[in-house]
Amino acid sequence: MGGICPQRRPYCIQAQIMLVASINILVMEVFWLLYLASGPSLSPFSLVIFGVLTAWALFRYQFLDLVPVSYHVLIATMRGPMSS
């Protein structure tokens, strides 16, 4: 996944983890809808994997705790509550 985000910044790792978690749900559902996996729906298993990966991103890489640098630059350069 180095091609998606060539630099190893924390928010790039978070985005990659969330991308893998989301694609996991899509792939499991496509397998089930195309009858490549027999038996009951694979949704519960894919949601468990999604939850585990989201928890890993949340606690290991402080998902939702990081703020891009541009936010601080924008707030620091604002003159007042209204921009003109």
Task: Report on the architecture of this protein.
- The protein has 84 residues and is mainly alpha-helical.
- The chain has one domain.
- It contains three helices and no strands.
- Helix 1 runs antiparallel to helix 2 (43-60).
- The longest helix is centred in the N-terminal third of the chain and has 24 residues, at 10-33.
- The chain is elongated.
Euclidean distance between termini CA atoms: 41 Å
Radius of gyration: 19 Å
Q: What pattern of helices and strands is seen along the backbone?
A: HHH
For the residues shown, what is the average pLDDT? 78
Number of helices: 3
Strand count, sense and barrel status of the largest sheet are: none
Number of strands: 0
Our estimate of the beta-strand percent is under 5%
Strand pairing plus helix content: what structural class? mainly alpha
- Which parts are unreliable, with pLDDT below 50 for 5 consecutive residues or more? none
Domains, number:
1
Name the overall outline.
Answer: elongated
Question: In percent, how helical is the residue content?
Answer: 55-70%
List the helices and strands and how they pair.
Layout: H1 10-33, H2 43-60, H3 69-77
Helix pairs in contact: 1-2
